[in-house]
Amino acid sequence: MHLTKLDKALMQFDRALQTLIPKAATAARPSPARLHEEAPLEPSERKHSIGLMRINHTGEVCAQALYAGQATTAKLDTVRTEMEHAANEEIDHLVWCEERLLELGSQPSILNPLFYGASYCIGAGAGLISDKLSLGFVAATEDQVCLHLDQHMSALPAQDQRSRAVLEQMHIDEAKHKQMALDSGGYEFPQPVMNIMTLVSKLMTHSTYRI
């Protein structure tokens, strides 16, 4: 089926709405949290879990925007298809994190629309330059996400197994997306660039932990 530019624009607008409007997206897989009972948390522990899960939810908002931007400007159909497949799996993560935030009595960051817009521009810009750079950016981003997930799983309250189960499955999926991007010919960024990405990621983390 041939899609016009208007068709593609409307599809991306719909994806943005599903990403940013609470409870608008639907996961294809049930949340891993369902395998665990809700455990009692002290107020400080609950606050910390909320902050970590809010950060992860914002990360998934950025992932949706990044993949959407890259799919829009990808030059090869195979690359576009892989981006869209990865974005669909990321929807599961988005929904799972949102559900967990609601269970904990909180909500996603109010800064998400800003992060979505910035990430979409970055993804589209990378795709315009080359598919190799675009795929390399995916691999580098997923590498950063896996590092964050490792840190968050260590920082979660020990009894918050529902949040931990979500993060564990996310880690598995993100590592798979990173390898997909590299196997498809993605550029491997040098360490100085990775260090800059780490710094930017930390800035985002601090801004979304509480709001």
What does this molecule look like?
The chain has 211 residues and is an all-alpha fold. Helix content is 75%, strand content 0%. It contains seven helices and no strands. It has helices at residues 5-20, 43-73, 77-103, 112-129, 131-155, 161-183, 191-208. Helix 2 runs antiparallel to helix 3, helix 2 runs parallel beside helix 4 (112-129) and helix 3 (77-103) runs antiparallel to helix 6. It is globular. The termini are far apart.
- Following the backbone from N to C, one meets helices and strands in this order, namely HHHHHHH
Helix/strand-derived category reads mainly alpha
Low-confidence stretches: none
N→C terminal distance: 42 Å
Write the layout of secondary structure elements.
Elements: H1 5-20, H2 43-73, H3 77-103, H4 112-129, H5 131-155, H6 161-183, H7 191-208
Can you give keywords for this protein?
single chain; 211 residues; mainly alpha; globular
Quick recap:
This protein has about 210 residues and is mainly α. The chain has helices spanning about 5-20, 45-75, 75-105, 110-130, 130-155, 160-185, 190-210. It is globular and about 50 Å long.
